[in-house]
Design a protein that fits this description.
The complex is a heterodimer of chains A (233) and B (46).
Chain A (H helix, E strand, L loop, with lengths): L1 H18 L2 E2 L8 E2 L11 H28 L2 H33 L7 H22 L3 H29 L19 H45 L1
Parallel strand pairs in A: 1-2
Chain B lengths: L1 H6 L1 H37 L1
The chains are: A mainly alpha (233), B mainly alpha (46).
Chain lengths: 233, 46
């Protein structure tokens, strides 16, 4: 039931995001405002911003499960932490790619080392190193403990690259939703649609995370079960 | 229809996005089904 609701919800978000008309002075409830310099390209906002949000959520979740692993030493917490970091990394790549496509049509180039592009690139490097670390250590307990500590440190550093650095330096990036002035250039329709997109993408992310954790758990249990079956035979 | 889509390219983007999303959804549902079968198998084996 939840999955059917999710598919209908995100399909509705996609349909509305691309089909609602844009107007310089929106009068009707279904009209979206034209953001100067962005026009129709502003529609990518409904997908680009949620991916950046989910990257943040994934990295924070990775830190929380990392802390839980260090307290309980339960391998399942390590799986949850690594899966959350993986999802955060995936959404971080998606935010970078959608941002680069946006930049191509707004700034004329895919990549120009804008502070926001630079900061997300550094963030990708930090979490890329997390997976390199995981694959470099063979002993499971050691790998889990080291990556839990790394996930905590990386998540503490993450807000600086995600929120602080792009606001300190002059950037071509449009004013983010969470900005210094606390103002948005959106009307209520645009904001509701963006929040609906946040909710839909969060649901999708939780679903993928849950599936991945279950698959990893199966990976832990199958070898022991097969061993038992062999001995039984 | 083709003429309409040519002059309203945003609907082409809409259709492609919907197809991609529905593809991801079907893929995830199939994986979930397989995972559930494996979980049931393992829980029977104890």
């Amino acid at each position: 039931m939840q999955k059917i609701l999710l598919v209908l919800w995100l399909s509705a978000v996609i349909i509305l995001a691309f089909s609602l008309p844009m107007s310089a002075r929106p009068a009707a409830w279904y009209e979206l405002p034209i953001i100067p310099g962005l026009e129709d390209k502003a529609r990518i906002l409904f997908f680009h911003v949620p991916t950046a949000w989910l990257a943040t959520v994934g990295f924070i979740a990775s830190m929380i499960f990392g802390i839980r692993y260090l307290r309980r030493r339960n391998p399942e917490e390590d799986i949850k932490s690594a899966t959350a970091a993986g999802l955060g990394f995936l959404f971080c790549i998606l935010a970078t790619v959608t941002g680069a496509i946006w930049a191509k049509f707004s700034w004329g180039t895919y990549w120009n080392w804008d502070p926001r592009q630079t900061s997300i690139f550094v963030l990708l490097l930090i979490y890329g190193a997390y997976f390199a670390l995981r694959s470099a250590v063979e002993i499971e307990e050691k790998r889990a403990a080291l990556s839990a500590v790394y996930a905590i440190i990386a998540a503490i550093v993450m807000p600086f690259f995600m929120f602080v650095m792009p606001r300190i330096l002059a950037s071509l990036h449009p004013q983010p939703v969470l900005n210094v002035e606390g103002k948005t250039q959106m009307n209520s329709t645009m904001l509701i649609l963006l929040l609906a997109s946040f909710a839909g993408f969060t649901g999708l992310s939780v679903w993928i995370w849950n599936l991945q954790v279950r698959i990893q758990r199966l990976g832990m249990n199958i070898p022991t079960t097969l061993e038992g079956e062999k001995q039984g035979a | 229809v083709l003429e309409f889509l040519t002059s309203n390219a945003i609907y082409v983007v809409l259709i492609i996005s919907l197809v991609v999303w529905l593809g991801i959804y079907v893929y995830l549902r199939r994986i979930e089904k397989k995972v559930r079968v494996l979980e049931e198998h393992l829980s029977k084996k104890g």
